[in-house]
Design brief:
Blueprint lengths: L11 H30 L4 H33 L4 H9 L5 E5 L4 E4 L1 H7 L15 H13 L3 E7 L5 E9 L4 E8 L1 H36 L6 H33 L8 E3 H19 L2 E5 L6 E3 L2 H18 L5 E9 L3 E8 L21 H6 L6 H11 L3 E7 L3 E7 L1
Parallel strand pairs: 7-9
Antiparallel strand pairs: 1-2, 1-5, 3-4, 4-5, 6-8, 9-10, 10-12, 11-12
Helix pairs in contact: 1-2, 6-7, 7-11, 8-9, 9-11
């Protein structure tokens, strides 16, 4: 207890110390008086007995003073002496950590926190960087109650990131604040929510259509062969669409399960892409599109899964033929370089894509034009599947497009 009495000017810590010394010295005097009495009764000369007792008393008092002085010196030295060890420990943690004082100033900051917030000099107020009122209120509650508390905090600069912030007392004057990044979890939760909502919507539409046609065939069109033939053809298209959607959903699920396992087989891109073009040739002819293929004469080997890569190029070339139909031409080029690796580019001369849509093309169920996509029997999952496969192959999909001039989809290994 270190406080100053304003009226008397007496340090209360000194009063406490003197009371302890008085109780200790009184007990010593009682013991010495008893020893002196017995010494005189046993025949010792009073002068000699008194000299011995004084010597013993001096030794005992000097030992007590030494212990008190050591205790008094140890206290200020120990305060903050563990901070170098704390700093070394905090730097080994991969999550941002701040050590703050009761005055809400920064005492220590680890490397992860410096990366997140930038360098905070020792003694800087926490509020200068963490301006969220809720976070500061939580820190003050922890200081008052001495109990751990936590809340969710969003850091929006330079990019939006969500954290679970936890504040806990280290001792009476220092407090630890940790930041656990939950951005990935929140994005995954949002993706799952959007995925379920979109998948339900995509399935609900053809199911409702099938139900309507079935009811019509059971009722007004029961005896109309022409209407039955037309409705059955539409129903077949809807069932086929649902089948493609389910197949794509299953493909995505399988890819997510093995996304962390890189393929190790060797695949030559030249015959693989040539086979895909030959397979899609009837589709291109039916759309009036000419597909040209340019590739090196020597093999272009990469590590990959042949079936998955075939699915990638089928999606990209089919999309180029369907959505770039107006340009009447699609070019497929393979280039290989010892330094930059292999690249396969698919270029169409269609209407192109506006810049704001390009970053979202690989999102599940994202469509630039919903009606155009459905009319071309797209499920909205093709480019999402492409992205997942290329991630597994440690490859990148680069999309460049200009409205009115066409688009280029390049796969870089």
């Amino acid at each position: 207890m270190v406080s100053l009495n304003e009226e008397t000017g007496v340090d209360m810590w000194d009063l406490d110390e003197w009371s302890v010394r008085l109780r200790r010295d009184a007990l010593l005097l009682v013991v010495l008086a008893a020893v002196a009495f017995f010494a005189v009764s046993a025949g010792f000369a009073p002068v000699y007995a008194l000299a011995v007792l004084l010597l013993v008393a001096l030794v005992a008092l000097s030992r007590g003073d030494m212990q008190s002085s050591k205790a008094g010196l140890a206290e200020p030295v120990s305060q903050g002496a563990d901070q170098p060890a704390l700093a070394a420990l905090m730097d080994r943690l991969d999550l941002p950590v701040l050590l703050v004082s009761r005055a809400e100033t920064v005492l220590l900051q680890n490397a992860s926190a410096e990366t997140l917030f930038g360098p905070l000099p020792e003694g800087a107020p926490v509020s200068a960087r963490l301006r969220a009122p809720g976070l500061l209120d939580m820190l003050r509650r922890v200081m008052e109650s001495g109990e751990t508390d936590e809340l969710d905090y969003v850091e929006r600069i330079p990019v939006t990131r969500a954290f679970r912030v936890r504040a806990t007392p280290l001792d009476a004057t220092r407090f630890v604040i940790t930041f656990t990044d939950r951005s990935g979890l929140q994005r995954m939760d949002q993706m799952r929510t959007d995925f379920v909502a979109n998948a339900s919507h995509e399935l609900r539409t053809p199911l409702a259509s099938l139900r309507g046609f079935i009811e019509t065939l059971q009722g007004p069109a029961r005896s109309d062969p022409k209407a039955q033939e037309r409705f059955l053809g539409i129903m077949l298209d809807q069932v086929t669409r649902m089948s493609r959607l389910v197949d794509d959903l299953l493909s995505l699920s399988r890819l997510e399960i093995k996304s962390h396992v890189a393929p190790d087989a060797k695949v030559d891109l030249v015959p693989l892409v040539g086979h895909v073009i030959a397979t899609l040739q009837p589709l291109a002819e039916s759309l009036g599109v000419t597909v040209t293929f340019s590739a090196p004469k020597e093999p272009v080997p990469i590590r990959g899964d042949r079936d998955e890569l075939q699915q990638v190029f089928e999606n990209l070339i089919e999309n180029a033929c369907k959505y770039g139909q107006e340009g009447k031409a699609v070019e497929v080029d393979i280039r290989a370089d010892a330094e930059t690796g292999a690249e396969v580019s698919i270029t169409d001369h269609g209407p192109g894509i506006e810049a704001q849509h390009v970053p979202r093309l690989t999102e599940r169920f994202y469509r630039v034009n919903v009606e155009a996509s459905r009319s071309k029997k797209g499920t909205g999952l093709g480019l999402a599947i492409v992205k997942h496969i290329l991630n597994r192959h440690k490859a990148r999909l680069v999309i460049t497009s200009e409205p009115g001039k066409g688009s280029r989809f390049s796969v870089r290994f």
